Amino acid sequence: MSIPVFIILFCLPFLLNLIQRIFFGSDPYQYITHWGGWIKVGLRYISIILYFIVLDYARIHAVTTDDHRMRISLWQGIKFGFGNFLKTFGLALILFAAGIIALIIYNPIADLLHAPLTIVIILLFVWQQVYMFFRMMVRLTLYAGEARLYHVICSREEAENVSTEDNLGVDGAIT
To answer: Is the dihedral of CA 132, 136, 142, 145 positive or negative?
Structure first.
């Protein structure tokens, strides 16, 4: 069920080619092509993040409602993810940035630890384990944050629905 969502989000960067062709013709300047390529890379990463956001919230919906129809859960994940875009994307982007920062810190230190000495190999092994532990903690934090955000927003929406239903009179008019 996630393949159509993936195809739509994967094709999002190709819209940049269309926009580039409309504004700059079939043979744009070199800097337009260069920066357009970087923007496409950024859009691909954003598309991948959006894809995983939608799937995560679809899974959360399926588990919390005990619904076995994944197309309904996928639709609810799309509605929730894009309906609360700043909150959902902000949470995912912060934890994605934490993973990138961890990788930037990990790589130079791991490159320094490549000597064929036993102590260096042990230190590299420990450093790799610390890095993998941190990556798993980032992933678990993302899942916990998404579940908490989903429950907070859904409970707030339910409370608003209940309060408007309490104000309705017998004939359905607001009292």
So the answer is: negative
Q: How far from 92 is each of 70, 103, 127, 134, 153, CA to CA, in Å?
A: 22, 17, 25, 16, 16
pLDDT digits (tens, 9 = 90+) for 49-81: 888 899 999 999 999 998 888 889 889 999 999
**Is 136 in contact with 89 (CB distance < 8 Å)?**
no
The DSSP code for 66 is T
Task: Read off the pLDDT of residues 13-48 as tens digits, 9 standing for 90 and up.
Answer: 777 777 777 777 777 777 777 887 888 888 888 888
Cβ(142)–Cβ(92) under 8 Å? yes
DSSP H helical ranges for the chain: 3-11, 14-24, 30-65, 70-83, 85-112, 118-166
d(CA 6, CA 10): 6
